[in-house]
Specification:
The chain has 174 residues and is α+β, with helices and mostly antiparallel strands. It has one domain: Gcn5-related N-acetyltransferase (GNAT) (Aminopeptidase, 3-Layer(aba) Sandwich), CATH 3.40.630. It is built from 5 helices and 7 strands; from the N terminus they run E-H-H-E-E-H-E-H-E-H-E-E. A 4-stranded antiparallel sheet has the order 1-2-3-4, with helices on both faces. The protein has a 3-stranded antiparallel sheet with strand order 5-7-6, sandwiched between helices.
Length: 174
């Protein structure tokens, strides 16, 4: 499948990013892998934080350096999903968040995009020398678990977190 490309966000994508956020809010969905887009009042606020958090020297307190990509349709330029690669793990990410978080807009789900997007992100992980990738999901998120397994993930364990269970999957990269 070559339907998507990963693109770094830039101000030129402001309208697409804000439309992506709107769709998630309207559907009451969690915007995972979007570098805090849900909590940003404006594109500029979000983009500033995204840029700060992309470098060790400027990462905001409590976070780790990460690179956030937009998954763009090669065919029509539509923003399909977002995926965030965390360059290292802190204690919270080791237990609950992992190296990668991602989301697909509701109108584009169940089309195989998540599997393709994660595969592209794993190539980026290799490029920045992350050899072992941790990805997590809620136990009831069957689609996300399938996406990870389709990319070679192996379930290590399950961790209770309040009233939910987090599944922890590892992918070994060559």
């Amino acid at each position: 499948m070559n339907r998507l490309k990963l693109v770094l966000p830039t101000p030129e994508y402001k309208d697409e990013v804000m439309d992506y956020k709107r769709e998630f809010i309207e559907n009451g969905d969690s915007i995972d892998g979007s570098a805090g887009l849900k909590n940003a009042d404006t594109f500029e606020e979000w983009y500033s934080a995204l840029c700060d958090n992309s470098k060790e020297e400027t990462v905001r307190e409590g976070l780790v350096p990460s690179t956030t990509y937009m998954a763009i349709s090669i065919e029509n330029g539509r923003l399909i999903g977002m995926i965030d690669i965390r360059h290292r793990l802190n204690d919270f990410l080791l237990n609950y968040g992992g190296n990668i978080g991602y989301s697909i807009r509701k109108s584009e789900r169940q089309k195989g995009y998540a599997t393709e997007m994660l595969g592209l992100a794993l190539k980026e992980c290799e490029r920045i020398n992350i050899k072992r990738v941790l990805i997590t999901c809620d136990k009831d998120n069957i689609a996300s678990a399938k996406t990870m397994v389709n990319n070679g993930a192996k379930l290590e364990n399950e961790i209770p977190e309040g009233n939910r269970i987090t599944q922890r999957y590892w992918i070994e990269l060559d």
